From TrEMBL:
All residue ranges annotated as the HD-GYP domain in the record: 139-334
Sequence ranges assigned to domain HD in this UniProt record: 161-283
The organism's taxonomic lineage, starting at the top: Bacteria, Pseudomonadati, Thermodesulfobacteriota, Desulfovibrionia, Desulfovibrionales
Signal peptide: none
SUPFAM superfamilies: HD-domain/PDEase-like (SSF109604)
Source species, domain of life: Bacteria
Name this protein carries in UniProt: DUF3391 domain-containing protein
CDD domains: HDc
PROSITE patterns, sorted: HD, HD_GYP
Length: 404
């Protein structure tokens, strides 16, 4: 498949194609056909003033890095260069999948609790139960990704230590699927997400739950948890990609992360993906000492971190995947009415499926399903996102209901 990308997104292993376009009409298009075999070659293209190139995603060493196949390390730049995967309509309606997803989420939560308690008590990590559950998470995400995401972000839990790993696994799998990652890669992502904070069992609870600023000594202990997590998993026969996802999810694009200060493409793709969803879940989750942010605000925080903490394009793709108003968001419309976001619309993120539930005076209204207006204007446009808890509402009471 041919794809036009910016020269700044070229990486070693990509195969550039000469499309035969006129140089006079496209003077900044790089057209020397062949595989890019060194970083020097990549840098030379940009230095020559070219701004775009066509690549063949099925040729060159890069082609085998897209699916997480054994023997080929996944390149995040290659995944992003592929462009958005065409969204597939949910196989199962949200209301139906929610019922199944509740059981999957509950099982994941129980497994996470047992795993962390066993490890904290000095036991070995059980990897069999998590592997089986990650397969169930993938199956649910294929049927309707909104269901598990909604459950993870809308259920009000106090046990952040246990729910966080489950939420990160769910988000990583669903986001990975939207990037076109194949089944084996999704299994690795799910396991890395579930295990990503395992090393925190070696950090005192008083530090993990401290509401104020950590001392330098306390922060040093926290920064050791990715390394500790890898060490706990190294003898359990897991793929190297899982271990790297656990060990590298706090590394930053610019090299200011921890524990090793890795930068750029030296960080595994799974570490980058888990890093993004880890921050999103942490920002939007309720903790003992703080309320969670609204998703729209959390996405804005992530956007401010692009190209500093995360590679070019990754945060933008995550925002497009989640949508400005994730499923379960409580919103006020231009008409003054209030609605819940009932379904995502990856092709048109500003036009999710809505379930109108209240009139402008917050009186219950006949429920009707509609799509927000695409141009962001008019009575059906979303005017603002609100916190449903402030109104005493649980979105899950509405998401599974048909229009009245």
């Amino acid at each position: 498949m041919l794809r036009k990308i910016a020269v700044t997104d070229l990486v070693v292993g990509m195969y550039v194609v000469d499309t035969g376009l006129s140089w006079l009409e496209h003077p900044y298009l790089y057209t020397e056909e062949g595989e890019l075999r060194s970083q020097v070659a990549v840098a030379g293209i940009a230095a020559s003033g070219y701004t775009e190139a066509f690549i063949d995603t099925e040729r060159g060493a890069y082609a085998n890095t897209l699916s997480g196949e054994p023997g080929g390390e996944v390149s995040l730049a290659a995944l992003l260069a592929r462009g958005p995967v065409t969204p597939v309509a949910p196989v199962v309606p949200l209301a139906e999948e929610l019922e199944t997803a509740k059981g999957v989420y509950k099982d994941c939560l129980s497994t996470a609790q047992a795993m962390l308690r066993d490890v904290a008590a000095g036991g070995e990590v059980d990897i069999e139960a998590p592997q089986a559950l990650v397969n169930e998470v993938i199956a649910s995400a294929v049927r309707n990704p909104d269901a598990l995401i909604a459950l993870g972000k809308l259920r009000r839990h106090d046990a952040y230590t246990f729910t966080h790993g489950v939420n990160v696994a769910v988000l990583a799998v669903a986001f990975g699927a939207s990037l076109g990652i194949e089944a084996e890669g999704l299994r690795e992502l799910g396991l890395a997400g579930l295990f990503h904070d395992l090393g925190k069992t070696g950090v005192p609870d008083a530090i993990l739950n401290k509401p104020g600023r950590l001392t330098p000594g306390e922060f040093t202990q926290v920064k050791a948890h990715p390394r500790l997590g890898r060490e706990l998993l190294e003898t359990r026969g897991l793929p190297e990609a899982v271990l790297r996802g656990v060990a590298e999810h706090h590394e930053k694009w610019g090299g200011q992360g921890y524990p090793r200060g890795l930068a750029g493409e030296t960080v595994h793709a799974w570490g980058r993906i888990i890093g993004v969803v880890d921050i999103f879940d942490a920002l939007t989750s309720r903790r003992a000492y703080k309320e969670g942010m609204l998703p729209t605000r959390a996405l804005a925080v992530l956007y401010s971190m692009r190209e500093r903490d995360f590679p070019p394009g990754l945060v933008e793709r995550f925002i497009k995947f989640m949508g400005p108003y994730p499923v379960g968001s409580f919103v006020r419309l231009g008409s003054g009415e209030y609605a819940f976001v009932r379904g995502s619309n990856p092709a048109r993120p500003l036009s999710p499926e809505l379930l109108v539930a209240f009139d402008a005076a917050m009186h219950p209204a006949p429920r009707r399903i509609l799509a927000a207006e695409r141009d962001g204007k008019g009575p059906l446009a979303i005017a603002e996102a609100l916190d449903p808890a402030a109104y005493g509402l649980d979105p899950l009471d509405y998401l599974g209901l048909p229009a009245g």
